[in-house]
User: Which sequence fits this backbone?
């Protein structure tokens, strides 16, 4: 009789653990990354933000490109998130000030966890950017669109201090050429 | 089940100890979360106001944020320094800036009396005629942080005193 009781209790506990595990999995799988991002902004006390792009580095790593702060969204942030058993969690975030004013293009070099990133605001009419470095490397950065627009490049090779940026419109016409310099120590 | 009184008392005592320990840790956790939230709110404010670059290494227990001045921060500090050079009582916290203690820097400029006295002196020293009301203590904060002229007559005063270059003729 007593043995039966112990078995019953043990079984119930095991069942509960299994149910909990699947419930967590279910919630995790269905967690909307945008909700998680929203929650991270609130906990960082960042208000008035605009999200340009969410870049998935792999299944459980993501980078969010955004800008924040009243009145002109001049603080450009990148936040790295990791998917854990508790869902999407904050890893690290960076913020760089870049005032748009009338500039066609701005850009900074920054590091977040073990990634090197170049990014900055650009004019909304820009449809494509080609970057050419002094040593002849060529990159096509991604464009992140919201009400405003940014360009960003996650570097996988050596960073560079200077490069020419060629801006194209949607018809493939060159809008402008600009040379940007990057401080690699920042 | 017949439990002895001694056993019952022991059970209740154990239960109370558990509840006590739980409440203690829960309370401590809530207090820690509030302190973290407060710290992050302060960082958010200081990053925005001083146009700083920031690295958020950790957002809880302990909060770890590294702050670095940007080119826009330098512009803010230049405007502040220029006023302080002419009006030494308008304190420029050189040491705190060098240490990168932006919260200390911010406490210096939030002295309303110092701001008001300086702005009054600027209106007295200016040789140009101006219309409308004189600026208040927020006038200098608007100018230093946002290069905003509020009230608009402060722009002429700042040009006249040599803080800003004359407007280009259109």
Assistant:
């Amino acid at each position: 009789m007593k043995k039966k009781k112990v078995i019953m209790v043990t079984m119930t506990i095991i069942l509960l653990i299994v149910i909990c595990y699947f419930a967590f999995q279910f919630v995790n799988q269905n967690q909307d990354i945008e909700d998680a991002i929203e929650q991270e902004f609130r906990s960082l006390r960042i208000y008035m933000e605009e999200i340009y792009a969410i870049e998935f580095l792999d299944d459980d790593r993501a980078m969010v490109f955004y800008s924040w702060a009243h009145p002109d969204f001049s603080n450009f942030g990148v936040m790295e998130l990791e998917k854990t058993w508790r869902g999407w969690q904050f890893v690290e975030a960076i913020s760089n000030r870049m005032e748009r004013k009338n500039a066609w293009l701005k850009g900074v070099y920054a590091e977040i966890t073990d990634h090197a990133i170049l990014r900055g605001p650009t004019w909304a009419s820009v449809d494509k950017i080609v970057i050419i470095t002094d040593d002849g490397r060529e990159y096509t950065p991604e464009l992140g669109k919201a009400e405003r627009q940014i360009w960003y490049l996650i570097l996988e090779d050596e960073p560079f201090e200077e490069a020419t940026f060629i801006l194209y419109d949607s018809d493939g016409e060159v809008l402008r050429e600009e040379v940007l310099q990057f401080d690699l120590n920042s | 089940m017949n439990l002895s009184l001694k056993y019952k008392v022991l059970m209740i005592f154990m239960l109370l100890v558990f509840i006590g320990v739980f409440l203690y840790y829960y309370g401590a956790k809530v207090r820690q979360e509030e302190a973290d939230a407060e710290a992050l709110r302060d960082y958010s404010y200081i990053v925005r106001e001083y146009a700083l670059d920031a690295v958020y290494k950790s957002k809880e227990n302990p909060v770890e944020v590294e702050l670095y001045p940007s080119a826009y921060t330098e512009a803010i500090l230049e405007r502040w320094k220029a006023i302080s050079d002419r009006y030494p009582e308008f304190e420029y916290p050189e040491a705190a800036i060098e240490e990168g203690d932006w919260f200390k820097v911010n406490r210096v400029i939030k002295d309303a009396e110092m701001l008001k006295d300086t702005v009054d002196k600027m209106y007295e020293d200016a040789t140009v005629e101006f219309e409308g009301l004189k600026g208040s203590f927020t006038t200098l904060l608007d100018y230093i942080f946002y290069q905003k002229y509020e009230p608009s007559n402060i722009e002429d005063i700042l040009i006249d005193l040599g803080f800003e270059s004359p407007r280009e003729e259109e």
The longest strand of chain B covers residues 53-59. Chain B has a mean pLDDT of 93. Strands of chain B lie at 53-59, 63-68. The CA atoms of residues 115 and 137 of chain B lie 5 Å apart.
